[in-house]
Amino acid sequence: MDDKLLEIKDLVKIYGTKIQTKVLHEVSLDINKSEFMSIIGPSGSGKTTLLNIIGALDNATSGNIYFQNKDITKMKSDELASFRNLNLGFIFQFHHLLPEFTALENVIIPSWIKHKTPTKRKQQRAIELLEIVGLKDRINNKATDLSGGQQQRVAIARALINDPTLILADEPTGNLDSESTEQVYELLRNINKEFKTTFIIVTHDRHLAAKSDRVIEMVDGKINQDYLTASKGEELWHCLAPHNCLYYQQNEGKNGIAKPHNI
Ligand SMILES: Nc1ncnc2c1ncn2[C@@H]1O[C@H](COP(=O)(O)OP(=O)(O)OP(=O)(O)O)[C@@H](O)[C@H]1O
């Protein structure tokens, strides 16, 4: 069985024409189905650029992105729009909810885009999702009447309405207090476990990243480290064969022994 969801090959991004800045340097990366992955790295290292290109919100200068073996860098704009709608969910630091609309309406909106009119089934699904994110008693509240953490949970439900295979989250907890941060991260984790949704999360928070299955550290537009975590406390065990290991065992000291996929 092919477990690979995404294959990113030699991705380059150069901004500018006269004065050119190369912000992604031949980035290559494979991401498996159901993986829960964080991208960390200093400010300006290219995390958001990489995420936006994976989400087809920005174009690569060169390189390829295969999503279930189909190269999205070759798609035309209408094909890309439909690819995004069918396969992707987005969660941003600033959730961009429509303030005058209720929580329920905000969740349903992406399905309007997909189906033109919301079906009864989608309406029911939106209510279920709001229950899953713990907002059952807030479905008819306007977005502006909700706390920051609640608004972010609406945004998470909205990202799930079209049953995406992959959710791209850019600093989803960046705007939240520490309690809401933990709750939102736990929620994303639970969604990953329950629906097998693949997650790629850009975060500055190493403590949260350590709770992912896999952490990628970017430095100067390159992947500096790529490791699976033991998910025990905050200790990160470094994977010795970055693109090629699923299982992980503690070695003497802090490093781990990477075992190939099929062991
Ligand atoms: N539209 C743009 N035009 C020119 N340069 C850009 C543009 N967008 C980003 N950059 C530059 O690309 C580099 C990478 O930016 P990016 O936002 O991907 O980094 P990041 O790691 O996500 O940073 P942060 O953690 O601060 O969000 C930065 O030097 C940034 O200034």
Automatic annotation (TrEMBL):
- Cite the ABC transporter domain residue spans from the record: 6-245
Q: Which key words tag this protein in UniProt?
A: ATP-binding, Cell membrane, Lipoprotein, Membrane, Nucleotide-binding, Translocase, Transport
The record's section on InterPro entries has:
AAA+_ATPase, ABC_transporter-like_ATP-bd, ABC_transporter-like_CS, MacB-like_ATP-bd, P-loop_NTPase
The UniProt record lists the keyword Phosphoprotein:
no
Any one Gene Ontology MF annotation carried by this entry is: ATP hydrolysis activity
Please name the PROSITE patterns in this protein's record. Answer: ABC_TRANSPORTER_1, ABC_TRANSPORTER_2
Mind telling me which Gene3D superfamilies this protein's record contains? Answer: P-loop containing nucleotide triphosphate hydrolases
The record's listing under Pfam families reads: ABC_tran
Picking any one GO biological process from the record gives: protein localization to outer membrane
Q: Which CDD domains match?
A: ABC_MJ0796_LolCDE_FtsE (cd03255)
**Family the entry assigns:** Belongs to the ABC transporter superfamily.
- The entry's protein name is Lipoprotein-releasing system ATP-binding protein
UniProt organism field: Acetoanaerobium noterae
